[in-house]
Amino acid sequence: MTKAIGARRWAIAGGHIPVESHGPEPAFTSRDQLSILNTGADGASLAITVFHPDRDPVGPYEITVPARRVRRIRVNDLIFPEAVELGRPYALVIESDRPLVIQFTRFDSSGSGARLGSIAADL
Amino acid sequence: MTKAIGARRWAIAGGHIPVESHGPEPAFTSRDQLSILNTGADGASLAITVFHPDRDPVGPYEITVPARRVRRIRVNDLIFPEAVELGRPYALVIESDRPLVIQFTRFDSSGSGARLGSIAADL
Amino acid sequence: MTKAIGARRWAIAGGHIPVESHGPEPAFTSRDQLSILNTGADGASLAITVFHPDRDPVGPYEITVPARRVRRIRVNDLIFPEAVELGRPYALVIESDRPLVIQFTRFDSSGSGARLGSIAADL
Amino acid sequence: MTKAIGARRWAIAGGHIPVESHGPEPAFTSRDQLSILNTGADGASLAITVFHPDRDPVGPYEITVPARRVRRIRVNDLIFPEAVELGRPYALVIESDRPLVIQFTRFDSSGSGARLGSIAADL
């Protein structure tokens, strides 16, 4: 299995990182996560653009995923060019030079520990 | 990133706003939410139609999303031409003059604080 | 909005109705639910086939959804030709004479009240 | 209903099996699950490849699903050629000789019993 599968562009409209977390850090820190799968024989270079409700989009956030690897990224860890704001809606567009499969999951410990999951729409 | 991506029509079949909420308002109010991403260089005008189990659909609810912005809308806040009923199934069809990416998420505090997420089907 | 949108065939692979429920009945009864949206000008007739791990599929379960309506059906209420077994995996294939949008949601009160949601894949 | 529906290849990017579980075993063991539906008249042979963050993919894990059956598999039970590691990200690519419908669900009892659901992307 070394064929590159998936798509070169993904979008996530419903981003939101709660301000509050409950439980031991860092396992229970509230977070949005991207799981990025590169099944191909070549490393992939990604550019992430972050969209906001009331100002221009910010980016690119640059990420790489090696050949035949999965990489998990916390949105909280996207800090350059600037950190993603807590407690506000945001959206992501992810563009890659190689086909990828991307899944977006949420771990929200601001309430009673519930989690929410959704997948990115391949556009 | 100013290319308009996504689709002009989206549907959500499984809407439901619980009658009861637990926890501090408004953060813990039970709600269904739409996250609407407009990546394009032009503002988008949306018309939302609400479908019911036992009477004709209601609409249009009119919404705009500026160019290169994400907008989050609580279904509870759709009040013109009429509020969406609590405690009953409903469905949404969203039509736009520009391509959009839409994600539907649920925050349900009627029980023990669980959350439920799903994405809209691009038709 | 009277155009029929969606697909004529949907599948849900991950059905499971817990044996135990906690909380007041019927609001907190564990259940799998189908939300079926018919946006078109004609009523839709559906035939549901239930697949099992260890015996032949059962069906058809026959359902109708009126024109321009949404209908929510608990899988627990599919009792003819036979009730869907509790506590065991099952899958559904739903075939319709009209395009529909279908969303599958789970309410599981067997544990601490969490809920799980997923959407049916349009095939 | 004996027509084979679905796709021959599926991918799940966001795998993660928590190290800790709370509640009676095995019903409350934290787990990722695959629900695999084979609607066709012939049995299906599957080869699963597991991707990791920091080493080469492992596989194939070989699975069969009989004709006209649904089969649920816990990722925890994929032990040959080796068990999937707990507490680390992983991804799956599933290839089949027949069309299938596959849904990925998560039961996470490491926190307060929440569950998370997502569907596999048909590629």
Show the helix and strand layout.
Four copies of one chain form a homotetramer.
Chain A (H helix, E strand, L loop, with lengths): L6 E10 L14 E8 L5 E8 L6 E8 L3 E6 L14 E19 L7 E5 L1 E2 L1
Antiparallel strand pairs in A: 1-6, 1-8, 2-5, 2-6, 3-4, 3-6, 6-7
Question: Could you please describe the fold and organization of this structure?
Answer:
The structure is a homotetramer of 123-residue chains. By secondary structure, chain A is mostly beta strands. Chain A is 0% helix and 54% strand. Chain A has strands at 7-16, 31-38, 44-51, 58-65, 69-74, 89-107, 115-119, 121-122. The two termini of chain A are 24 Å apart. Chains in contact: A-B, A-D, B-C, C-D. Chain A binds chain B through residues 9, 11-16, 49, 51-54, 56-57, 59, 89-91, 93, 95, 106, 108, 111-119, 121, 123, and chain B through 1, 5-6, 23, 28, 33, 35-37, 39, 68-72, 101-105, 109, 112-119, 122.
